Amino acid sequence: MRLRLAIVTVLIAAFASTAWAKLPPGDTITKENWTQKVAFAPESVPGWKTGETLDGTSWKRFEKWIPASIGGLMEKHGLKIWTRGYKAIHPSVGYIEATNKYHRDVELIDVGNNPRKKGIKNYTAGLPFPQPQNGLEVAWDYQYGYQGDDGGFHYGVYWISGKSGVERSEEWRWLYIIRAMHRTDLDPKPHIPDLARKDIQYTSMTWAIEPYDKAGFGALYSRYEEPKDQEGWIYIPTMRRTMKATFGTRGDAWNSTDMLYEDVRGFMGYPEWMNWKLLGRKTVIAPMHAGVPQGKAALKEVFDFDNPPHWNPKLKWEPRPVYVVEATAKFPDYPYAKMVFYFDAESFAIPIKEMYDKKGKLWKVQINAYNDSSDMDKHPPAIGTSLMIDLQANHATAFPSYNFKSNMNLDPGKFTLSNLQKMGK
Amino acid sequence: MRFRLLAGSARILAAAVVLLVGSTAFAQVPAGASDAPVPSPGAVVPAEPAEPEPRPEPEPADDPEPEADEAEDDGGFGFGGEEGPTFKVNGYIQSQFGIFVSPDKEETVPAGDASYVSHHGGKLGQVSIFRNTLQLEADWQPAPPISVHAIFRGVRSLKLKADKDAQPPNPKKLVRRMDRSGLEIEEWVALGPDELREQVRNKYYDETDLRELYVDLDAAEWLNFRVGKQQVSWGETGQFRLLDVVNPINSTWHFGSLESFEDQRIPLWMLNTTIDIPPLQGNLQIVWIPMLNDPEDHVTVPLTFVGAWGLPPPVAVGGDPVKLQKYRRKVFLYPGNDIENSRAGFRWKGELGNFTYSLVYFYTHVISPPIPFAIRTPFGSNADIEIYSEFPRQHIAGLALETTLPNPVTMNVKFEAAFEPDRTYPVNGENDDRKRSPGGKDFDGSGNVVPKHLVYRGIELYEQDQLTLIDNPKKKVLSYALTLQRPTAIRWLNPEMTTMFVFQFMHTWITDFDLADTIVEIPGYDTTAVREHSFRLIGSIFTSYLHGMLTPRLLAVFALGKTPGRGDEKVYQGGFVSASLGMTLGNNWRAVLAVNQFFGPDPYDGVGLFRDRDEVNLLVRYQF
C-alpha cells in the first residue's frame, strides 16, 4: 500500500512538474497579469520605503532580502543602496503573444552530462516555461527571456584597483541582433531567413573607440542554436587584418577584464553547459529600475571613482521576485566551481551573480543594473550599467552605459566581415 | 561642423615640434605634453558629494527623445546616418632607444682568403637605435558616406656609429683638388664615415611625411572606394610577408621582423575598391596603383643602404682590406611615374562553412632585391664603375585559408600560399657565363660605332664606355606557410588569463632551380647562394598579467635551407630570439622593453648577417 502511494505520488509530481511550467489550455497571459501568470509578486518587506540610503551599518535591517554577497560589499567595501519601491516589469506585447502561442509546444531534452547536445525542442518564440519549476527551466527562460530583438550599446570599460582607483579606461560600441531567430517584435518573424539557414541565433559586432592603440579593434561573432562555442572574427588595426577568433577556451577573460566571456549579461553560455539547481523563489533587493543616468557627462553620478574601493555604483534598488539558481559547469576546466544566479522572475535578467572558486570561497560578484524600459509594450528594460568585482584580487571592472537603444531594426546584412574591417579601418 | 579636437592637443603639438626640430637627444617629454587631452585616470571624476539626493522617478516616454547630453555624446552608431559630422585627431609621441650588447670582437676576422667585419653593428654599448616619432592621425567625416583619413609622421633620429658600414647607392663625392703640377682636377672620392652616417640619417631615418591621406566613399551599401595614399594588407601570416605584396617596406631603422608592418609599409597612392557580394558571402577588393609616388618609394628599401640594421660590409677576398666602395655609384632604375608601370590586382575574400578564404592576384614588380642587369665602365676609369639595377615585372598569385577548430582542440589554423611564376633572381657577379658584352667597346646595340652619346635601357653611354649586361633568370617560386594559434589556460602560469601559443612553418621552393644559374641572395654583394628550399620555423608565446598591464612575450625564429646536390651547403642559417615585456600604464603611456638576440653559423648567410647585433631595446610611447 505504501509502495503504491509512493508510486502515485511520484507520478503526480512528475506530471505536475511539467504541467505547472505550462499554463492550462485557454489560459492567456496579458501584460496586466504577466507577474501573476509567469512570475510572482515580491513579498512585502517590512520597513522598506523609497528614498532611504542603506549602508554597511544599516543594511542588516533587511538582511533577509539582501544577498549576503551584497551585504558584504556594503559592510566591507562601502557600497550603498538607494531604495525605491517595487515596480512590475512585463515584456513587449509581441513577446507575450508569442509566449501564449508557442510555450505549450516546448519540451526539454535530457542531455545528461553532455554539454554539446541541444537540450530543447519545439521552441519558436516567447517565454518557454512560464512558472518554471526547476533550475534548468529558469535557465531556458533566461536564455530566451525578453531582451528585444536587437539593440545597440555605447559604453565604457573601466579597470579599477580597490586600492589605487581607476587604472585605465576604454570606450566601445556594440550592435547586436540578439534574436536572429525567435523574434517577437521586429519583422521578419519569427526568424531572419538568411541567419536561420545558418542556425545563427545571435550575431553581434563590437568595436573600440578609445584609447588610441585600441581604436578600431573590433569583433564580429555569432552564437548558434546548437550549444557550441561562438564563432567569429576580430579585426586588429595594427595588422590591418581580420582573424578568425577562437572562443572555446574556458575561463578566457574578455579584454583582460575581471569578466569572462561567459559572464557577459550575467551568462553568455548555453543552458546545456551547466547543471542548474533551483535554490528557491525569493524576494531580493536588486537594481531593476536603477535610475542610472546615461552619457559620459553623467559618469560621476554613476560610479564613485574617487573614494575607495573606487568602484561603488550609485543605484536604486527595490524588492524583486527572483529565482535563486546554483549552476555548476559540465566542463572540467571551468574556472568557477559554482555560480549563484539571482534571476529576476519577471524579466529573467540577472541583476546579481556570485561566482565561487575551487575552494568554495566567494570570488566575484557581478551587478547588472537596469533602467526603466522606454515603453514596456515595445522595448526591454534598458541596460543601466554593469560591474564585475573580483573580491580576492580587490579589483573590479565597471561598464558605464553612455547610450542604449533597443529594437533598432538593424540590418543583418551589415554584420559581415567586410563591415568589420570597415568599422575598424 | 562639429569637431572634437581634443583639449590640450595644441600644446602637445607645439611641444612635439620643438622636440623634433630642436633636439637630437631625447631628454624628457616637455611639461606641456603631459597635460593629456584625455583626462588621466585618477582625474576622471571631479569631487562630488558621496550621497546623491534621491531622484524623482524617471518618467518613461512613449517615444523617448535622446537627452541633450546623449546627442552631444554622439548617440549614433555609425551605421547609416545617425552620427553628425565629426573630426578627431589623435596620435602619439614615441621614443625608441637601443644599445648593442654583443661582446666586443676583432675588427676583422680572417676566413681563408677572405676576411670580414665581425661586429657588424657596433661594439658593446653602442647605440643601436634612437628614433623619436610624432605620429598624428586625423579622421574627418563630413557626412556618413564620406570620410577622410590622414596620418602624419615625423621622425628624428641620431646618427649611429654603426652606419659607417652603410653601402649607399652614391658612396662617392666629386671633389676638386690640385694635382702635383698645380692643375685643378676633379675626382671621385669615397664618403667618410661621418658623411655616410649623416647621409643615412637624413635619407633613411629622419622623416617628415604625410604617410597616408585617403578618402573613403561608401558609394552604395555594397560598394566602397578608398582613394589616396594608403596601405593595403593582404595575407594571414605574421612576422614574414607572403601575400602582403601591395606595399613595399622600409625596414632600414630596425630589424624588420621585430617591428610592426604597419610602421614599415610604404603607403602608395592607389585606388582601392571593395565590392561586397553577400549572395557569395564575400567581397572583392580591386587595387590599382598608378605609380604616383617618388619612384624609389615603389620598392622596398635595400638593406645595404644603412649600417646599423643593414647588411654588413661584404667579404674582402684575397687578404685586401674590405673596400666598401668598389663602385662609383649604383643606379637604381625604379619603376617610374609612368602608366605603363602601373600595378594592379585583386583579392577575393569569402566564407565557406567554417573557413574564411582569400584568392589573390597581383601584377607588380620585383620590389626586393634590386636586380643588377648592367655594369658600365666609363672610358679610362676602371675604378669608377656604375652598377645598374632594375625591378623587373612579375606576377603573384595566391590563396589563404583560415578556420578554427572547436573545443577541446580550440585552435586557429591558417594556411597561406603564394606562387610567383616569373620572379627574377640576381646571379653571382663572378659568373662570367651570365655576362655578355653586347658588341665592342663602341656599342650601340647593333654593333655600330657609338657616335658620342646613347641611352640604352635607361643607361647613358658615352663614347668608348664599356657595358656588360647580366642575364638574370626568371624562376617559378612557391611559398607557403602554416600557422597554428591556440589560447590555453595554464592556471599555474597565469590564473587570470589564457596564454597564447603561436607556431608557424614556412617553406619557399624554387621549383625550377638549377645549380648552373648561380642565383644569389644579395646581388653585387657576396656569393651566398640561394637555396632551392628555404624553411622558417617561428614560435611565439605571450600572455598578460594585472588585467593587461603587463604582457610578456617570447618570439623565436629559425631559418634553414637546403639545395639537393650542393653537398657543402650549410642547412642551418641561424635565427633570432626576442624576449619582451609590454607595459600598459593608464590610457596614455605604453612601453616595451625587449632583449633581442641573433645567431647564425655564417656571418654572411641568413640571420647570421645580424648575429652581432644583439641588443636591448626600450620603446616608450605617450598616446593621445
Q: Briefly, what is this?
A:
The complex is a heterodimer of chains A (425) and B (624). Chain A is an alpha+beta fold and 425 residues long. Chain A is built from eight helices and 17 strands.
Task: List its traits.
heterodimer; A: 425 residues; alpha+beta; outer membrane lipoprotein receptor (LolB), chain A; 15-stranded mixed beta sheet; 8 helices; 17% helix; 31% strand; B: mainly beta; 5-stranded mixed beta sheet; disordered N terminus
What does this protein look like?
The complex is a heterodimer of chains A (425) and B (624). By secondary structure, chain A is an alpha+beta fold. Chain A has one domain (53-87, 141-423): Lipoprotein localisation LolA/LolB/LppX (outer membrane lipoprotein receptor (LolB), chain A, Clam). Chain A has helices spanning 2-21, 34-38, 68-77, 93-102, 135-143, 193-197, 299-302, 417-424, and strands spanning 53-54, 81-83, 107-108, 120-121, 151-161, 165-177, 200-210, 218-224, 231-236, 241-245, 274-286, 316-329, 338-344, 352-356, 362-371, 382-390, 395-406. Chain A has a 15-stranded mixed β-sheet that branches. Chain A is globular, with a radius of gyration of 21 Å. Chain B is mainly beta and 624 residues long. In chain B, 6% of the residues lie in helices and 44% in strands. Chain B has four helices and 30 strands. Chain B has an 18-stranded antiparallel beta barrel. A five-stranded mixed β-sheet of chain B has the order 13-17-16-23-20, with no helix packed on it. The two termini of chain B are 22 Å apart. Residues 1-76 and 318-325 of chain B have low confidence and may be disordered. At the A-B interface, strand 5, strand 6, strand 10, helix 7 and strand 17 of A face helix 2, strand 1, strand 18 and strand 24 of B.
